[in-house]
Write a structure and sequence with these properties.
Distance between the termini: 62 Å
Order of helices and strands: HHHHHEHHEH
Low-confidence stretches: 161-171
Strand order of the largest sheet: 1-2
Shape: elongated
Radius of gyration: 21 Å
Strand content: under 5%
Mean pLDDT: 89
Number of strands: 2
Structural class: mainly alpha
Number of helices: 8
Helix content: 55-70%
Length: 171
């Protein structure tokens, strides 16, 4: 008829309230990414966070945003962001677990000795380990902080799609 009845209006408002309730827990995190306050997130906005937390470069950031951009408008609405954030948190948990494994003394840094302790049993040689430290130690303190480690670790975006045997290749 081109119009809605009162009952249809009430049903629509109930559905809208349910949708808003479902996104309430992530609104604050959405605002962190959407620092410009535009109501959506682009890869440019996500990049600094994903670089710091996951070691992502811009290509990986764009790929991850694209995976969750359902309407292909090159940006994430808050509804698209919900699934995106779940994936980011899953990947971050993997990087954090690996960091804790390498950070044997728990001081928040991975020294050359800690790197050796973790990587020698995996078949790496001393010179390879030393070169890893040199390559990823951006602040020159001869150890890796979390952000430097995340760049070294290079978690695959499609982690859950990899065969089990490949999941530890970056180890």
């Amino acid at each position: 008829s081109g119009a809605i009845t009162f009952d249809e209006f009430v049903l629509a408002m109930v559905e809208r309230a349910k949708m808003n309730q479902a996104i309430a827990p992530i609104k604050e995190q959405f605002r962190v990414y959407d620092y410009r306050g535009r109501g959506y997130i682009t890869a440019d906005e996500a990049y600094p966070i994903l670089s710091r937390e996951l070691g992502f470069d811009m290509n990986k950031t764009e790929s991850l945003v694209d995976m969750y951009d359902k309407n292909r408008d090159y940006r994430l609405s808050i509804h698209e962001f919900k699934s995106f954030l779940e994936k980011v948190n899953e990947l971050k948990a993997k990087v954090q677990a690996a960091f804790r494994e390498f950070d044997v003394d728990g001081d928040g840094y991975i020294s050359y000795e800690e790197m050796r302790q973790t990587m020698l049993p995996r078949g790496y040689q001393d010179n390879e380990i030393y070169n890893i430290i040199l390559k990823y130690d951006k602040d020159g303190d001869q150890r890796l902080n979390y952000e430097e480690f995340a760049k070294f670790w290079d978690v695959p975006i499609f982690w859950n799609l990899l065969p089990h045997s490949m999941k530890h290749e970056t180890d």
